[in-house]
């Protein structure tokens, strides 16, 4: 039987090792909350696609998440038949180095490249690989390995979770729900939409399949939260309403974050969104005059404000450098967004990615910055949303980049840390729904109250911590006492955890100052084949070498499982 190895790019990555701004392991800390100092939530995003593919292969596979070069070399010397590597444009140089190592140390291994980095030209990629995946990955890899074709509706959904940490302490446990790939909206800058030719591939095709997947997670952990990974989850109204009907029938509520456009959100009432369990959304603000079709529906400023009034957290993403934007217009749009007081904000620069209409337009008109047009490697490396690449009719590149940095800093200064903004939003939602006639919405209000109880431990850090305005400190103090009044006796005990959070915040100041703990530990995921009775095994890097895994067997001794559990506990310290 063939041996398959999948991997993300090797660590270390990031600006500290010469990569472009925002390249790293974390979307929040690297982009959205990058200016929020120690208050920035921390969560490492693994290369989920590799786990999804491995879960659906008949062939056993190993997945390495962020291996060091030494760990990668140890693994490839085991003689794998196929190696699959996922990368993006800004990490293409790491991909090249890993492929060189494979050719040198395991020359018989076939290399398959995948991910959005494969929008590079064939002539740029083929020297480093034997095959390129530019489609849905399960179907591609099964064909490549000579396995029987598997319909999308028969795909197994992997059990993948992540933990969000504040000041180094885990505060939420989130299950990743892979509902779909691609997006029919086709915004001119969007790589994910045009990579799949504006098609939407429903990995979970029905409302029932989504509900059952989430219910399984909830059975194991009633406090589990969810992120639905689908470019515009609510756009398919039939699937979403089927999911809503099941939530009502089963009287089940969740705590879910999803991606949704104004157009999609406008199809539902706020009560319906909350009945589905949706209490967090990522909305593309882009620009008020950008004219994208996905903005049709409710007024976006009113929508953001009303969502948050109902307890639904909003992450808004604004684009800088759109051709109509002068500096004055950009500042006016930013001021309008700040008036909406979104819980989180992302500010990215309008950039051309190969395969998108914007890229084709920029190249045909000769608008790409000369230094990038003449140096493809440098151009790819800068594809992060933090470099002004295109000649703009009103602003110079350095002016656009300066605006971006200013907006991140102003967002933090004006609205305070995102983690504390969330407290106000959930408090508003609780007050609105605690006595609602709909029992499902009353249950949702209880969920809000449970979340608010945790802020009894967290808010004191905002009241007494550094870099917080007096106005915001007073707001947090008021919220603290409001929450103390509404939570039950047991939930009040979170107050006694506040010294721990204060101590952890103090340590975070030191770690942030010293730039320590910036690179994650390597994780090894072992898959034994789709039809195997053995479930996936996860090991923390550094310890995997201490144990030998018998991949041919379907039983792992209990002492081994205990050992891995103990080692995971040690990792927390």
Note down, in words, how this protein is organized.
The chain is α/β, with parallel strands linked by helices. It folds into three domains: 4-155 and 522-571, Response regulator (Rossmann fold), CATH 3.40.50; 161-351, pyruvate-formate lyase- activating enzyme (Alpha-Beta Horseshoe), CATH 3.80.30; 421-514, no CATH class. The protein has 22 helices and 16 strands. It has helices spanning 27-32, 48-55, 69-76, 92-105, 122-125, 137-144, 191-195, 207-220, 237-250, 262-265, 270-275, 300-309, 327-340, 357-364, 370-373, 376-381, 397-415, 418-433, 439-464, 470-486, 498-514, 558-571, and strands spanning 4-7, 61-65, 82-86, 110-114, 131-132, 161-166, 169-178, 180-181, 201-202, 225-229, 256-259, 278-286, 313-320, 344-349, 523-527, 537-540. The relative contact order is 0.11.
Summary?
With 573 residues, the protein is α/β, with parallel strands linked by helices. Helix content is 42%, strand content 14%.
């Amino acid at each position: 039987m063939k041996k398959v190895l999948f991997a993300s790019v090797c660590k270390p990555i990031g600006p500290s090792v010469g990569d472009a701004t925002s390249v790293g392991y974390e979307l929040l800390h690297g982009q959205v909350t990058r200016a929020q100092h120690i208050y920035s939530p921390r969560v490492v995003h693994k290369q989920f696609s590799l786990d999804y593919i491995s879960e659906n292969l008949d062939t056993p596979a190993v997945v390495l998440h962020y291996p060091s070069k030494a760990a990668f070399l140890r693994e490839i010397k085991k003689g794998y038949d196929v190696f699959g590597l996922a990368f993006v444009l800004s990490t293409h140089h790491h991909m090249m180095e890993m492929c060189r190592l494979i050719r040198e140390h395991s020359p018989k291994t076939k290399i398959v490249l995948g991910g959005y980095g494969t929008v590079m030209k064939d002539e740029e990629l083929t020297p480093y690989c034997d095959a390129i995946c530019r489609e849905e990955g399960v179907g591609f890899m099964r064909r490549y390995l000579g396995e029987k074709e598997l319909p999308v509706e028969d795909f197994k959904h992997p059990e993948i979770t992540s933990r969000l940490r504040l000041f180094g302490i885990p505060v939420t446990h989130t299950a990743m729900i892979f509902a779909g790939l691609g997006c029919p909206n086709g915004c001119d800058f969007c790589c994910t939409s045009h990579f799949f030719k504006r098609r939407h591939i429903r990995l979970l095709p029905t409302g029932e399949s989504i509900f059952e997947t989430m219910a399984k997670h909830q059975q194991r952990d009633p406090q589990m939260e969810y992120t639905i990974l689908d470019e515009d989850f609510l756009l398919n109204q039939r699937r979403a309403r089927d999911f809503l009907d099941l939530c009502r029938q089963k009287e089940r509520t969740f705590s879910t974050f999803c991606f949704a456009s104004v157009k999609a959100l406008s199809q539902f009432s706020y009560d319906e969104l909350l009945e589905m369990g949706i209490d967090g959304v990522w909305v593309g603000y882009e620009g008020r005059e950008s004219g994208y079709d996905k903005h049709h529906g409710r007024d976006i400023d009113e929508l953001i404000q009303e969502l948050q009034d109902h307890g639904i957290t909003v992450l808004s993403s604004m684009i800088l450098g759109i051709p109509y934007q002068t500096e004055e217009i950009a500042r006016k749009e930013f001021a309008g967004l700040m008036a909406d007081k979104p819980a989180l904000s992302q500010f990215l620069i309008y950039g051309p990615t190969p395969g998108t209409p914007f890229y084709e337009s920029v190249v045909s008109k000769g608008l790409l910055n000369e230094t990038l047009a003449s140096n493809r490697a440098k151009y790819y490396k800068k594809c992060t949303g933090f470099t002004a690449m295109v000649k703009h009719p009103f602003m110079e590149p350095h002016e656009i980049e300066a605006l971006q940095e200013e907006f991140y800093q102003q967002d933090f200064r004006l609205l305070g840390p995102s983690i504390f903004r969330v407290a106000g939003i959930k408090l508003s939602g609780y007050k609105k729904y605690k006595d609602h006639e709909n029992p499902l919405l009353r249950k949702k209000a209880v969920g809000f109250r449970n979340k608010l109880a945790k802020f009894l431990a967290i808010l004191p850090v905002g009241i007494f911590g550094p870099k917080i305005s007096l106005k915001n400190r007073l707001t947090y103090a008021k919220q603290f006492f409001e929450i103390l009044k509404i939570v039950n006796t047991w939930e009040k005990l979170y107050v006694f955890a506040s010294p721990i959070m204060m101590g952890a915040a103090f340590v975070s100041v030191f770690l942030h100052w010293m730039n320590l703990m910036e690179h994650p530990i390597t994780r090894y995921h072992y898959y034994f084949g789709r039809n195997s009775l053995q479930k996936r095994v996860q090991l923390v890097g550094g310890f995997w070498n201490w144990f030998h895994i018998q991949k041919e067997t379907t039983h792992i001794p209990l002492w081994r499982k205990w050992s891995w559990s103990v080692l995971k506990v040690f990792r927390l310290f």
